Amino acid sequence: MNILIINGPNLNFLGKREPEIYGSNTLEDINKLLEKESALLSKDLNLEFFQSNSEGELVSKIQEAFGKYDGIIINPAAYTHTSVAIRDALLSTGIPTVEVHLSNIFKREEFRHKSYVSGVSVGVVSGFGINSYVLGLRGIFETIKSL
Ligand code: DQA
Fold first, then answer.
1. Which of 8, 38, 93, 121 pairs as cysteine with 76 (C-beta 3.0–4.6 A)?
2. Among residues 103, 145, 142, 147, which one has the least CA distance to residue 123?
3. What is the pLDDT of residue 30?
4. pLDDT along the chain (147 residues), means of 10
5. What pTM was estimated for this model as a whole?
6. Where are the alpha helices (DSSP H) in 1-147?
């Protein structure tokens, strides 16, 4: 089982960026945590990680995932609230996707309450800090297993 983990803009700055909201862990820490969790879930689980600050690169990576990955975990970051292009790319590939956020987007400014990605996702995990990714991985793993 191959799962692609995609992180959007400014998430390469985790650890330095608004730590009171996003915590002190870096993206590298999150990826290590996911590798650990993946080993616990199954030895046949392969993870690939991708981060970009550019909407077009995120769209291209989602398109390239077609036929290669069984599932996607995505934190589209600010593009969550603006990107029809990312939504359409996910719809085009039809790959089961889980949307994750470190913060609880519904507890924050109103413009963050709208997600273009939730409606094309199997599920959403928001507000558990780095554990949102771990819960997202468990969720997508179980979903794919049951297909
Ligand atoms: C975020 C929430 C978004 O609103 C914000 O733009 C981010 C990070 C989160 O993980 O909590 O960059 O996706």
1. 8
2. 142
3. 98
4. 98 97 97 98 98 98 98 99 98 98 98 98 98 98 97
5. 0.98
6. 19-22, 27-41, 55-64, 84-93, 131-145
What is the 80 CA–ligand 1 centroid distance (Å)? 8
Q: Is 100 in the pocket of ligand 1 (CB under 6 A)?
A: no
101 is catalytic: yes
Sheet holding 97-101, edge to edge: 46-51, 2-7, 71-75, 97-101, 123-126
Q: Report the C-alpha gap between 114 and 101 in whole angstroms.
A: 13
Cα 87 from Cα 59, distance rounded (Å): 9
Task: Give CA–CA dist 97/133, Å, rounded.
Answer: 12
What type of residue is 74? I
Q: Relative to the CA of 103, which ligand 1 atom is closest?
A: 11
Q: Are 139 and 34 in contact (CB under 8 A)?
A: no
Tokens of 18: 């608004």
Calpha distance 143→146 (Å, rounded) = 5
